[in-house]
Amino acid sequence: MTDLLERPAETSPLTDPVDEETRTGRWKWVVAGIAVILVPIMVFAAYTMFLMSMLGSGGGTASSCTVSAGGVATELTVTTSGGSTRTLTATELGHAATILAVARSLGVSERGQQIAMMTALQESGLKMYANSSVPASLDYPHDAVGSDHDSVNFFQQRVSGWGSVKDLMDPTYAARAFFGGPDGPNEGSPRGLLDIPGWESMSLGEAAQTVQVSAFPDAYDKWEGAAQQIISSVGGSVSCDSSVLVGQAAYPLSPGFNMTSGYGPRDIDVPNASTWHVAIDLQHWPNPCGDPVYAILPGTVVLSSDLWLSVKHPDGFIVSYLHMYKSQRLVDVGDQITAGQQIGVTGNVPPSGGCHLDLRINKNGTTNPAVAGLQEAPALGAPAQYAGYVNPEEFLRLYGIEICPPDSCRRP
């Protein structure tokens, strides 16, 4: 695949002038049945947990997601601030994995994840509660039976305000209701965490109490360390439609893609084409245009030009997706997107020699120490104009994704 150097008019205002892809060979075979390797945080027996429904943007259209807790341990002992301990079972850790997977699919920060975990630990010990005062709740899977008003599930959400019995006995719905936000199932009433102005600047316990309105407002604080223990120990993966989400990140194309041009210097004989490539090119060779493209991380769309679609992550770095036709994009400037959300389809916007996705990362402005520590292209010999660009393969490894494993991906 050969792409000519972009004309000045195509230069992104967010990033430096861009070099484009070169197809270095013609492949006459199609890779079939490629498995995507999911990397769990802890190596334990994996099992499939629940089917999720997540609201799409705007109209509330549901898309089916499968959550598997690849890093759930058989048990985990956590310690409160007072020094007491509690041993959580695999079932309870499974509920924790569901909460974390929902949080990550919504782009909720680790601080928000910790607040949710503290809340569930205090309210239920991460048990899925039915309620003897709500007989219908006993008809759904549960771990224990309580009798506090009409409260159910691991967040002890009340049937009289938070939703139907059927909904609230669904662990995924319960987690989505707790976080709320623009696409939350309760539409801001009762308020979920993301519906509360300034929750990020509150203490963790105060934020939990603002959601729960508990009679014991100081009870959440003692679980702060224990919640962090769980987040560090429990891994989770989410598969939404054809995308694959690992922890907080997603693969940009559905399984079975190839890398047709890598990051770094390249030897090409095309006039005016750059000899340095600050991206990786991905495609399902030799498929035509139209492959769904998925956001690898959450963020805000900050640029949508003829050639570029750029998304700014909450940590400040920018992920850019090139060559999608603008008319076929599903998002625009200002839109908030989540990891694994489809944002468009592969295209052949010139200068380009074929349908593919160009994926590139610019770390300028990041507040993430791990991302900030990645080596920039000029340190490897690239022209100074490419300052800030980092190797997308190394970047994705920070999030547990090996974009092109040697046993399941053809490189140039």
Automatic annotation (TrEMBL):
Gene3D superfamilies: Glucose Permease (Domain IIA). The keyword Membrane applies. It comes from the Bacteria. The keyword Membrane applies. Pfam families: Peptidase_M23 (PF01551). Keywords: Membrane, Transmembrane, Transmembrane helix. Residues 1-20 are annotated as: Disordered. GO terms for molecular function: metalloendopeptidase activity. Residues 287-366 form the M23ase beta-sheet core domain. The chain crosses the membrane at residues 29-50. This is Putative peptidase. It comes from Microbacterium laevaniformans.
